[in-house]
Structures are given as C-alpha cells and as structure tokens.
Write a structure and sequence with these properties.
It is a single chain. The chain is mainly alpha-helical. It is built from 21 helices and no strands. It is globular. Keywords: Membrane, Transmembrane, Transmembrane helix, Transport. It comes from Leucobacter insecticola.
Amino acid sequence: MQEGIPEHLNDTDHLAVLGYEDSFSRSMSLWGNFALGFTYLSPLVGVYSLFAVALSTGGPPSIWWILIVACGQMLVALVFGEVVSQYPIHGGVYPWARRLWGRRYAWMAAWVYIWAMMVTITAVAEFGTGFVASLFGITLTPAITLMIALGFLLLALAINFTGTAWLGRIARIGLFAELIGVIGVGLYLLIFQRKNDIGVFFDSMGVAGDGSYAGAFFAAAITGLFLFYGFEACGDVAEEVENPAKRIPRAMQLTIVVGGVSALFSFAGYVLAAPNLQEIVRGEVEDPIPAILESTLGAVGAKIFLVVALLAFISCVLSLQAAASRLIFSFARDGMLPGHRWLSKVSATSKVPNNALIVACTVPALFCVLIFVNENLLVPITSFAILGIYVAFQMVVLAALRQRLKGWRPAGPFSLGRWGTVVNTAALAYGIFAFVILATPGSSGDFLEDYVVHLGLGLVVVAGLLYLFAARPDSHSDAPEGDAIHVATEIRQRTGQLTVPRRNE
C-alpha cells in the first residue's frame, strides 16, 4: 500500500468513480440494512403461507428444502456481494446487470424484477389480511380484504415517506417480531409441546401413494424456493447505507443464515407440535397453524402471536415497498422509464424518492382491486412472482460469470478471490436447477392452472421486449454500461492496489 493512498474508497469517492453524486442520507446501519433484507425475506410469512401446501405435497420431509435452497441462495448472495461491493448504488438487480453486461440486458432484467416485486408486495398485503381478521374477530369478505390490504400499502407508504431512519427503525422492530414469532415460538414448540417424534422428517406419511416419493419431494421444493429471496433488498438501498461496499455483503449473508435457521425452527416446531399431523398431510386441514397455536399457546398466547405476526407483515410490506421504489428510482435516474424525470426526484426533506414510492404503492393497490374483482387471481400472480424473481437473479449471476471469463476481478472490499469463478459457476448451476423445478408444469389437466407460471412470465417478457424495441428506452440513456473491468482497474489504481508505472522524464 502506498503512503497517503486509502485502502478503500470512501462512499462519496466510490460513487464518483461510478458516475453518480452522493445525494441520499446515509442513515442506515449494518443492522438496519440486515433488518430490511430479513423482513423482506420474512420466514414467518413464508412458513405460514406454505406450511399446509408443503405438508400435503411432500409430507414432513419437505423441511429439507429449506436447507437445500438456503445453501443454493447463499451461493447467489456471495456473487451479489462481490458485485455490490464494487457497485454500491441504488437499484440492485438493474444497475448490476447494466454494469456487468449492457443497457438492453439490464432493462429486461429490471422489467421482469419490477413486476415480480409489485406482485410480491400485493401477495404479502393480501396474505396479511387473515392476521388482522383473526386478531380482531372480523369475518373476511372480498370488500374487507381489499380495505385491509390497501391499509397495509398506505401505512407502509406513510412510513416510507418519513425517510430512511424510520424505515430502519421499523425494519428492526419487524426483525425482533420475526425472531420472536419464528425462533421463539419454534423453540417453545420443540421443547415443551412435542407431540410427534423427530423421525417424521424422514417419513413421507403416504403423500406419494403407490408411486415414487421423488416426484412428491420435488413438487414440495416450493417450500424453500418461495422463502429465500429478499436478501437482494439490502443492495437496493445501497446509497443510504454507511460504508455499503463492506456492510451490504455481510447483511446479505446474515439474511440467508438467520432466515434459514429461523425457518427451520419454525417449520420443525409446527410439525412436531401438530396434534393432527396425519390430517394435515392428507390435506384435510386448510389452515393448520392457528389450530396448532391455539392448542399449544392457549387463546391468549395465540392472540399475542397474531400481534407479533402482524408487525412482521407490516414490516415486510414496508421493506418490499422501499426496495421496489429504489429500483424504480435507479431505473429512472438512467432515463430508462417513461416519466423518468418525475420518478427520479428525491425529496429535499426526507431524502427518499417519493414519486417512485407512490408508484410502488399504487401498482400493488391496483392488483388488489383486480383480486377483489376476481379472487382466483391471487394464486396465479403469486406463482409468477417466484419465477420472475429467480429469472432476474440469474441474469445477474450469468452476467457476472461472463465478465469473469473476460478477465474481471471484482475490486470491492468484499472478494471471494480465487474461489469467485467456482462459486459463480455453482450459483448459475443452482439457478438452472431452480428454473427446472419452478417451470415444471402441473398435472391437474387444466391448461390454465398447469401453465399459469409460464403464461405470466411469457406475458411480462413479451410486453417488455415489445416496449424495448418499439420505444427504445435504452437509446435515451447515456449512463455507463458493461464497465466492470474498467471500474475495477480504476478502483485499484485509486487505492494503490494497482500501480501505474511513470514515464521517464
């Protein structure tokens, strides 16, 4: 290291190398950033939403998908960590794909990701209505469901308008609610309320009938695949985190580890405490978790859990909305969206992209209205969100591997070193494996039901391609692209990792 040359660039200088000014308030700490990603991933929401489906599809052994997918997504998180360490800028998937490949490639990755995020916000708001109804003894009707879902969205918007500091505070409250709701309750059920032997996790309990269990087990992969995304949100707010190049990779990895452990405790606790496990596996109990909690925690304990779960749902919607708004802002800042000047404005007081936040609230609200008109739309649009997220993720993973093969060595503070290419290749292989599982059509015999994921993704991709080649949004943007090797070289020069020989005078 040369004397007087910093080991790492400070936040302002790092942004300057990337072509941007430091215009946000860096008030989010490592723990606030981790809380944002964790509450987006939300093991409480994931386990509650899929517990009955997982058991009726794959039986108790479906719990192993939590471990399998956690390991696969950790590979993806490590790749993302190297990328965000070199490119700690708002928007996550979009700027990463742009700087690793190019404008059109990034536009498609972000287009798919934006719609998947909007649908995910909608789904979480809709699923959370059941907790409100149970807590206050309300009978859910389509109209009441719509009102509660819109209430979630508007409450999140109001909190997000106040600024990054409050976003971090509420995310931390959501983090504690999640940990109490999943690890606390899970451990209590495991230690004091066990009604089944641990051997059930190796017992299919007849879900495959007379056929092979392999098909049933792979069908239950949704147990983990639906759960493990959200860690990328840590990078969506990079310009609001102090020292993001070092902290965000750590926050992403923490999100996967703590999320995985939490989900395992929670899922295992419910299974082992279920007094009617065989009935749940046979699909005779539509919503088993409230009954399990009622029988183990009592009426008062179940109500307390509902309050904790409600806090987790609110925090999840808040984190999703914040992440989506930063992606929209980043997209618009580069001139890649209609109305980009309006969408890229940052509030002078709260230092957040208010207009992008309005869009991140309005679009899910419109989806909620569509679900009010036809409640059968909730499952199809939720199914699209999962595959859409994985497509966008793997577009970044593929772009990173392409740059490595061209000679890119990531220059951020977080680096995998010689293991980078190996981990990157393994992450891509895992992504292909996940695609195959997610894209396998159902076997109900109903074309729409069996191919709804393919139809949803196809519609979004075709619409995106038509707009891309008709309106040419990429032609309106002159922001940098495909510069991974160049930026890495400049960072190394500025930090003394790469010396440039002087000419002889």
